[in-house]
Amino acid sequence: MMAADLEVNGVSWAPTKSGQPVLHPTTFSVAAERVLGVVGPNGAGKSTLLRLLYRFQQPKTGHVRVDGQDIWSMSARDAARRIAAVLQEQASAFGLTVREIVRLGRTPHRSGFAASGAGDEKVVERVLDTLSLHPLAHRDFGTLSGGERQRVMVARALAQEPQVLILDEPTNHLDVRHQLEVVSLIRSLGLTIVVSLHDLNVAAGVCDDVLVLKDGHSQGFGPPQTLLTNALVSNTFRVDARREHLAPSGASHFSFTLPN
């Protein structure tokens, strides 16, 4: 898998041609192997933006390019070879095993109804090994814990051998240990990653850059250390935010209170 540059130029989206935009024109870029966090309150447009990035919805305006090529100028199959997504909603596995779920990620690389070949199985084995899923390979997906399921869905995405990986709230509904596991995994993949997160402290710790959205408008884009000021965070989330620097590591942590 080779990571790619992701360029997003002026993308917007509305439910109808004449409807009010859910996402207003937004521009940013993510260099290969960097991690971009998308943050903002509920209804900010985070999931809408991600749907444009993994070609589920076509932008009303603007372009999404992977290594300079517009994703809507390629076939859906070719786009799926370049971009993979892990969503919050996990469909029923219908009794499939972990290995069978991961094998589904090879679909964009097969022709028609062709069965998996030796090359596909090598990729599946490598991904199972990368995510330490071999002990679970024959387990029914429905019997797994939330954290285990999230790892399997990431594995399925990696089996697509994408250049860009989109993650929609990957730590949502996970306990602290599994949140830490997912965060560690994100940093280790070596892909170009766009991840929506609801926890600013997680975003600041795992992301190279952050895009802040509010009411479908970009509030800023840049490194979290400089972009996430008390004023911007307070205004975006309608709280009183205070950034505290922790000794001796020097790491920072946001605390929040309701405004008077």
Automatic annotation (TrEMBL):
CDD domains: ABC_Iron-Siderophores_B12_Hemin
ABC transporter domain ranges (all copies): 6-240
Molecular function (Gene Ontology), one example: ATP binding
SMART domains associated with the record: AAA (SM00382)
Highest taxon of the lineage: Bacteria
Family indicated by similarity: Belongs to the ABC transporter superfamily.
PANTHER family, per database record: ABC TRANSPORTER ATP-BINDING PROTEIN (PTHR42794:SF2), HEMIN IMPORT ATP-BINDING PROTEIN HMUV (PTHR42794)
Name of this chain's protein: Iron(3+)-hydroxamate import ATP-binding protein FhuC
Species in which this protein is naturally found: Tritonibacter horizontis
